[in-house]
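Hi,

Apologies if this is the wrong queue. I'm a grad student, and the batch job for Phospho-2-dehydro-3-deoxyheptonate aldolase from Paracoccus simplex produced an output file that my downstream script rejects. I'm not sure whether the problem is my script or the file. Here is the sequence I used:
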Amino acid sequence: MPIQTENLHIDTLRPLPAPAALAASLPRDEAISRIVADSRAAIRTILAGRDGRLLVIAGPCSIHDPDAALDYAARLAELRHALADRLEIVMRVYFEKPRTTVGWKGLINDPHLDGSDRIEDGLPLARRLLLEINRMGLPAATEFLDPILPQYFADLIAWGAIGARTTESQIHRQLASGLSCPVGFKNGTDGGVQVALDAIRSAAGSHSFPAITTDGRAAIATTTGNDACHVVLRGGHGGPNYGAGHVAAVAEAAATAGIDPGIVIDASHANSGKDPARQSAVIADIAAQIRAGETRIRGVMLESNLVAGRQELVPGQTPVHGQSITDGCIGWEETRALLRDLAETAAGRLRIAA
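Support response: The file is valid. Your script probably expects a header line. Output copied below for reference.
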């Protein structure tokens, strides 16, 4: 027998259903399809500066409890309806968590929160949750991390993010070029925006790369390019980058690169110094810029949950309902107040535009 040279570090290989099989068992209906399509179209016009409303991506750092996520979604759906003339509110529904070293990788990878890594349970759980959120009339946003997984749920996503750790990745730029939704590229972890601008230019072009079909077969995907990609400022090792000077510098760099400076600002992460309570100060600064006439800021992101802060999972102890187990978040009452403030800010911009 020849010496074995493959799968030397593979313990098991468990089958997954084909993406088409999962979609057939958990299909979207016409109403859900309309929510996704309409929100994508609205986001595109906002990012292009043709709609003076503000895009707001708000929700938990990560989803770990579907019941709490639906509780949050029901409240956010009410606000979306009430503020729709000024804000395009989309719920942050993040299923995958990039890890610097090790840790919980998200609901899809470890839905039982016990290290069992039952991805075959996580995928239908994630798709079912997205269907229920969209059924409330609330579109969903997520970060795309694994290049295979989007086939299972990207049809239910209105806006996608490529994270700071993966913006420089060719695989993720190729992925973004084929996604059907607008995609935000975050600046690098060092705070530099050039990698995001390069990513936008790359994702706008056509690419051919290995992929899987909806029936689970290996294939070569050739994309047409995604013209709805944009920069997301999230700060970096050097500090925050949401101020007026930062926005002007990004806009100048974007113009040099031939890119429309449709900027979304993440109020969390390095922009808040990883202190969730500082998100309100970031939003206040952004609102002041917009009231002063800044039109290149087209959207904001908030890490928000039912209960402020974060918690550790303790074996045998029931977690706090609606509190993050990853990055800390602001609570619901503060979220509601900030969204109403942002709506007033957007209303002023709309009056000027009229």
